[in-house]
Amino acid sequence: MASAPDTSKSFKLERHGGYLLRRINSTKVIAASSHLLFRASILATVVLILLFTLHYPPLLLYHSGAAASSAAHSNHRSLLSSAVTYGGAAWEREVRRSATPRSPSGLTVLVTGAAGFVGTHCSLALKKRGDGVVGLDNFNSYYNPSLKRARQSLLSRHGVLVLDADINDTPLLTKLFDVVPFSHVLHLAAQAGVRYAMRNPQSYVASNVAGLVALFEIAAKHADPQPAVVWASSSSVYGLNTATPFSELHRTDRPASLYAATKKAGEAIAHTYNHIYGLSITGLRFFTVYGPWGRPDMAYFSFTNDIISGKPITLFRMQDGAAVQRDFTYIDDVVKGCLGALDTAKPSTGSGSKKRGPAQLRVYNLGNTSPVPVAKMVGILEELLGKKAKKNVVTLPQNGDVPYTHANVSLAEKDFGYRPTTDLATGLKKFVKWYVEYYGVKTGNNVHSKMKKMEEKEAEEEASA
């Protein structure tokens, strides 16, 4: 008797076969979908790269002369550092060429803020005496970058390479210290200005605090050998101090502006890196530096421009009517102080070093020791320009400015022979001469002729003496 077919088994096989078929079809669909997704991802990546390239074209680290004088740069351009590549044989050759001193005993110095006012003058002085110099500047737009580009061009003509990058750009700093064993760093890069801090406070934190830490981090943990660091603090750290002349022993815990607070924070940070990592660090407290190639935001510079153009200037006075005074310090004197600090800086000792003793930690005032009322400074400019200023005298507001500054420089004189020699009248004359030549000033007062007559008179006085 024939047995009946096992329908349950057939059903199971059919169900199992259907399951396999559905699974195979699902696998094919998933595979196809994955392949399509992969292609879409590749396409999206290519599109993003193209969009990024269009919006952020490659940024060259070095521009010869003033070729990029019209470029605008952000204070925080380091955010794009991942998209910028450094190095290459030609780039490294340029860096080494600029960094190589003319003599075996010469210093090898990285100057940050090299296209700034003090940075340009210090870089030129270092190169002139035979040291190796590499500069770095981010060319931000705090004031017209064209002046910084002109300074860069000046440095280039004297053999100093100025890299176009931000101090917070850690990959660049790392690469630089890999390429060159810098013996010293002159750290002048900072966000300057007292009143601007009320409008853009974050720029001060980014440059004066974060930038300083970024530099110290590389110098302490990556550089071999560790460089000695000389950096720009400020007379602003004395804040509301009323004891005069200002001494390095006076209290600096009452800053009157955010700018001053960031510089005071910098001095505390310097102490920490000196203590923990053995960095040799020297802080220099500058007192109202002025002179040729100066900063347009400084009073003497903007007053000169306004007097020539016939615009009114604003002079401040105290609540009691007393004059606001500044210890104006000529740029050449400040440069001598910076080089003196570099020359007397002892080597860094490295972290945890007991054999070589504690690392050097110093702070000095660099001023002129002769406070002058700002109104007197204006009077000197009026005489030099042959034109009266239109004055608007107002009470000093609570904007971070202090009523007076007066430097005691006896410590700097003792340790590296710092002696300021340029009085305000002489320094302003040199500034005005540069100003009228640089900007091609042409006025009815014939400033050029007046300056020439003043020089001839001085030459006669020197000859008769």
Report what the structure shows:
The protein is of the alpha/beta class. It has a domain at 190-291 and 328-368 and 403-421: NAD(P)-binding Rossmann-like Domain (Rossmann fold), CATH 3.40.50. Helix content is 46%, strand content 12%. The chain has 13 helices and 13 strands. The protein has helices at residues 7-55, 89-99, 117-128, 145-157, 170-179, 201-221, 258-277, 299-309, 331-344, 374-385, 410-416, 424-438, 447-464, and strands at residues 108-112, 132-137, 161-164, 184-187, 228-232, 281-286, 289-290, 312-317, 325-326, 329-330, 361-366, 372-373, 390-395. It has a seven-stranded parallel beta sheet, sandwiched between helices. Helix 3 (117-128) links the parallel strand 1 (108-112) and strand 2. Helix 10 crosses helix 12 (424-438). The radius of gyration is 31 Å and the shape is globular. It starts with 6 loop residues before the first helix and ends with a helix. Residues 1-34 and 40-84 have low confidence and may be disordered.
Keywords:
465 residues, alpha/beta, Rossmann fold, seven-stranded parallel β-sheet, two-stranded parallel sheet, 13 helices, 46% helix, globular, disordered N terminus
Strand fraction: 5-15%
- According to DSSP, the number of beta strands is 13
Task: Please state the overall shape, judged from the principal axes of the Cα atoms.
Answer: globular
Stretches where pLDDT falls below 50 for ≥5 residues?
A: 1-34, 40-84
Name of the CATH architecture of the domain at 190-291 and 328-368 and 403-421: 3-Layer(aba) Sandwich
CATH superfamily of the domain at 190-291 and 328-368 and 403-421: NAD(P)-binding Rossmann-like Domain
How far apart the termini lie comes to: 148 Å
Helix/strand order: HHEHEHEHEHEHEEHEEEHEEHEHHH
Main sheet: strands, sense, barrel: 7 strands, parallel
CA radius of gyration: 31 Å
- The overall pLDDT average reads 84
Structural class: alpha/beta
| Number of helices, counting only DSSP H or I runs of 4 residues or more | 13
In the CATH scheme, the class of the domain at 190-291 and 328-368 and 403-421 would be: Alpha Beta
DSSP helix fraction: 40-55%
Strands of the largest sheet, in order across it?
3-2-1-4-5-6-11
What CATH calls the topology of the domain at 190-291 and 328-368 and 403-421 is Rossmann fold
